[in-house]
Amino acid sequence: MIDGYVKRGEMGHARIVFDRMVCRDVISWNTMINGYAIVGKIDEAKRLFDEMPERNLVSWNSMLAGFVKCGNVEDVFGLFSEMPCRDVVSWNSMLACYAQCGKPNEALALFDQMRAVGVKPTEPTVVSLLSACAHLGALDKGLHLHTYINDNRIEVNSIVGTALVDMYAKCGKISLATQVFNAMESKDVLAWNTIIAGMAIHGHLKEAQQLFKEMKEAGVEPNDVTFVAMLSACSHAGMVDEGQKLLDCMSSSYGIEPKVEHYGCVIDLLARAGLLEEAMELIGTMPMEPNPSALGALLGGCRIHGNYELGEMVGKRLINLQPCHSGRYILLSNIYAAAKKWDDARKVRNLMKVNGISKVPGVSVIELKGMVHRFVAGDWSHPESNKIYEKLNEIHTRLKSAIGYSADTANVLLDMEEEDKEHALAVHSEKLAIAYGLLHLDSKEAIRIVKNLRVCSDCHHVTKLISKVYGREIIVRDRNRFHHFEDGECSCLDFW
């Protein structure tokens, strides 16, 4: 009877029956704990767990799964560490927690521990690990994991296949993502959405459109996530008309009412294209309030296209909406600085300090022989820092002599001397990562960088020049999209 109530989510009735039981076995305790965990009543689940006279592995795993659902890494790890014994379900729960909470390095380290104690990975294991590789852009680790899947005959079903597609797309290997997708026997809507989204972040609009067509021909109905991916593809390709037409036909042709995310994609598209008035008009006609992401896209457009008056208005609105979001303060401060309103820029940064808000540092990572190396601007913590900075000096000297490069100091939005601005630009994190790649990677290997923030225009320009002067392919994944640099050109066509 308890099990029936739990399956229907009627925990109140289940608790009444449980409390009236004269003799409770471990199964009834586990059923209640699992039920509370499923409905998100983690405190009730923990209370019963602590009261249990005798626990088995199912009890521990049910409690662990409940903590994972709540997303509290410390609680999950604490309970995981206390477990008297663990099975593959326990390890998978811990891995899933790390993957979901943006701790990919911890997930990969835990996998090594898991294998060291002789626990054989299963489908959920590899799905969590592929997610971690995708987050890091760790292609080598992802390739090894794919080999492990094949060698151990783990079925590449729609779930594992989709995770592989996502990993390869986010690691910059869209060709391998396409190969895996084409080889999948069963493709659900999630698989189609994943490959379309992969094409979007690489700026491949035509390929995304072709996949969208094939998806419909295969009898798979697009959903709201499909249209987010398609609109993102239009945005990254700068195709304004296509994006607006797609938004307009969502409800009329597909019966899907656009959500705030869909409007946000088109606002982003219009703002990047410099059509700020049109973006404002769309915000005014939306049937719902714009979310911070949509307003943030508009603010970014104001910064790129120099509309400081509108930028100030939108920036202040965003800070009121998200007073703890450092990026909103930084962008407004940068807008003031670009307009040479240094006092206003300082006021915004002082407001950050008063509110206890810290700027998110720009971080660039590069994978080399399975090791992920992390760099921040002006970083000297790497054991090879001396060699890296020597290489960086060589790069700048070579670019100046070969092409006449000079730093775009408009990107340094601080009131300082020109020479100091040039130095600040010279040591941006992606430049350090590229220098490290040039030091260690074979000349035929692509240099792959993942950055957590948008690449500035000077770093973008320098990377194009490096690709030409050094004859290297450089692939950078920033916060917005992929940039494939080769022979002095970028796949984004300077639209990002």
Task: Give me a quick take on this structure.
With 496 residues, this protein is mainly alpha-helical.
What characterizes the major β-sheet? Answer: 6 strands, mixed
How are strands sequenced across the largest beta sheet?
A: 2-1-3-4-5-6
Quaternary organisation: single chain
- Structural category is mainly alpha
Question: In total, how many beta strands?
Answer: 6
The rounded Rg comes to: 25 Å
Q: Helix amount, in percent?
A: 55-70%
Which runs of at least 5 residues are low in confidence (pLDDT < 50)? 415-420
How large a portion of the residues is in β-strands, by DSSP E?
5-15%
End-to-end separation in angstroms reads: 58 Å
Family: Belongs to the PPR family. PCMP-H subfamily.
GO molecular function, one term: zinc ion binding
InterPro entries: DYW_dom, E2_motif, E_motif, PPR_At4g14850-like_plant, PPR_rpt, TPR-like_helical_dom_sf
Keywords: Repeat
